[in-house]
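Backbone-to-sequence.
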């Protein structure tokens, strides 16, 4: 094969840099703002038992996420490669750890999120139109497939779609916040002193459980790094999109939950998955319930798009590195420069999960596993500052090393709380992640033979 032919093939496997700041910002906010803003209030209020501790949990979750985003953004700007966190972990800890992260992402994390959110969409669609339960899974499959087809049109198309759904999903949230704040509240919300509810086991256990629940709602921000290879100006736009997007998410979560708390007593919010609809009925009347349901549908649809768009880039990246079976197939791009076979693979795994059910346990398990890697990323910022001081860093985390340390403390706290409260889930998650080791050894052996 001639050098010219090799250059043509290499160029055909390069992603187009067509994405700008606002689609990247939309990917951060659109991926994070999904079902969490509507459904996590139930578990947070149930854990904390008070309005003051509920809002503190949402605030601290936002602060930890912003510090985490500002910390990880240093590596995102310094290593602006498609694959995001997989590349950062490989640079700092080697190929085994990066492979295990990629394995966990493609086998559980991304398909489980797509599956769970698609089921949420199907369930809300069924409730909106009064359909039977039998339509939930078929609708979920259609939703997942339709979003995949949109992404096959190219990064620019999926980025524009993400921006549109972000604007659409903010409209019902804005209505709830504006009219909820202007309306005379039914409940007096006391922010100070911050106390736990009488039914909880104490202040710090309640805070820990509440914070852990909010972190599930904040999850998804780091995966914009997976599309850094398609950003026109990743050094400038990636840190701005992560920090700005997370600050906007935290502000929205705080305002929405304040409206919830001033509209309904906490005992009616605690454990109530229909809290958003009940609050809207109080504010807007019966029409409000349908309005919020439509908002949930748009919100969840956009969130699925965020996970789909970023998720298919992981098996593509690992395919380029010949780390998986059928790597050459996973690394193929369609005429729009989209890894379509990797996308089909992720969709197939998601559909299997939709058919099997039980997605909550998969998502919770992966959140624990992925926070191991998040925390490793925070350590990697410090490690690479010492190991590679000459690495070009267009962006450096502010107030170094305090913000990385806060991120590490937050990560250790989340892992510790999960280990204490959900040991069986931890063991299962670590076991499934470790199953990737034989595939890693097989791929390495195959490379050695060649």
């Amino acid at each position: 094969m001639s050098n010219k032919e090799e250059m043509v093939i290499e160029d055909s496997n390069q992603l187009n840099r067509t994405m700008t700041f606002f689609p990247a910002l939309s990917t951060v906010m659109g991926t994070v703002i999904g079902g969490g803003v509507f459904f996590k209030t139930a578990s947070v209020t149930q854990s904390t038992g008070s309005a003051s501790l509920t809002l503190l949990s949402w605030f601290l979750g936002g602060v930890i996420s912003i510090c985490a985003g500002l910390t990880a953004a240093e590596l995102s700007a310094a290593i602006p490669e498609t694959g995001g966190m997989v590349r950062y972990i490989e640079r700092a800890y080697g190929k085994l750890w990066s492979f295990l992260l990629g394995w966990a992402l493609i086998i559980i994390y991304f398909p489980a999120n797509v599956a769970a959110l698609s089921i949420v969409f199907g369930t809300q669609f069924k409730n909106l139109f009064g359909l039977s339960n039998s339509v939930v899974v078929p609708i979920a499959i259609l939703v997942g497939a339709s979003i995949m087809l949109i992404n096959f049109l190219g990064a620019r198309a999926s980025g524009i779609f993400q921006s549109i759904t972000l604007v659409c999903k903010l409209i019902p949230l804005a209505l709830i916040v504006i009219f909820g704040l202007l309306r005379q509240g039914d409940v007096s919300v006391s922010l100070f002193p911050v106390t736990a509810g009488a039914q909880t086991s104490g202040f710090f256990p309640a805070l820990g459980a509440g914070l852990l629940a909010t972190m599930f709602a904040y999850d998804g921000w780091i995966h914009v790094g997976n599309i850094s290879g398609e950003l026109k100006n990743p050094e400038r736009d990636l840190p701005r999109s992560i920090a700005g997007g997370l600050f906007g998410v935290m502000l929205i979560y705080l305002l929405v939950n304040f409206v919830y708390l001033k509209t309904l007593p906490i005992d009616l919010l605690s454990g109530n998955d229909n809290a958003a609809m009940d609050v809207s009925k109080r504010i807007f009347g019966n029409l409000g319930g349908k309005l919020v349901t439509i908002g949930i549908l748009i919100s969840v649809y956009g969130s699925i798009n965020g996970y789909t768009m970023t998720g298919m880039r992981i098996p593509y990246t690992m395919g380029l590195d010949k780390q998986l079976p059928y790597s050459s197939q996973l690394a193929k791009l369609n005429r729009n420069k989209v890894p379509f076979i990797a996308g089909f693979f992720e969709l197939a795994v998601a559909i299997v999960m939709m058919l099997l059910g039980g997605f909550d346990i998969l998502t919770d398990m992966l959140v624990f596993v992925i926070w191991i890697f998040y925390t490793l990323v925070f350590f990697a910022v410090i490690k690479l500052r010492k190991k590679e001081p000459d690495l070009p860093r267009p962006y450096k985390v502010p107030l170094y090393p305090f913000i990385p340390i806060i991120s590490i403390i937050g990560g250790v706290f989340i892992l510790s709380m999960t280990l204490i409260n959900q040991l069986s889930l931890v063991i299962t998650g670590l076991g499934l992640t470790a199953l990737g080791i034989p595939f890693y050894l097989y791929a390495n052996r195959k490379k050695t033979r060649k």
